[in-house]
Give the backbone structure.
Amino acid sequence: MNEVRKSTVFELAVYDAARQIPLGKVSSYGSIAGKIARGTARSVGTALAKNPFAPEVPCHRVVRADGRLGGFFGETAGDRVLEKALMLEAEGVPFASAGKVAASAFFAL
DNA sequence: ACCGTGACGGCGA
DNA sequence: TTCGCCGCCACGG
């Protein structure tokens, strides 16, 4: 029988870092990459995309370096965008503008 | 071992 | 300021 998809050490490190993001705050893919000192924003995004520990791991609190929400929240993705954006607002994350998180909302990992 | 893909980031026009 | 291209690392086939 099939085993569960075993995550790599890198991915686990990413999940652990994301899990440290407090409610009402966010972090960028690049910041996490630097935190775990492994990989880059690209690989971090790929790892979070697999996130088998959701919602245990608040991957929705991870945004792009420019404050934008990112792939899962892509404006062209449809209604999902608003759902996630609203979820962040519900957590108390300040927005600089529509769909853009304020720089002060970034949590220093 | 090699190639293509992907929830990104920085720079140039 | 906005749009587009290249470069970055990790993973699966």
Observations:
- Chain A is about 35% helix and 10% strand.
- Residues 32 and 69 of chain A are 15 Å apart (CA to CA).
- Chain A has a mean pLDDT of 86.
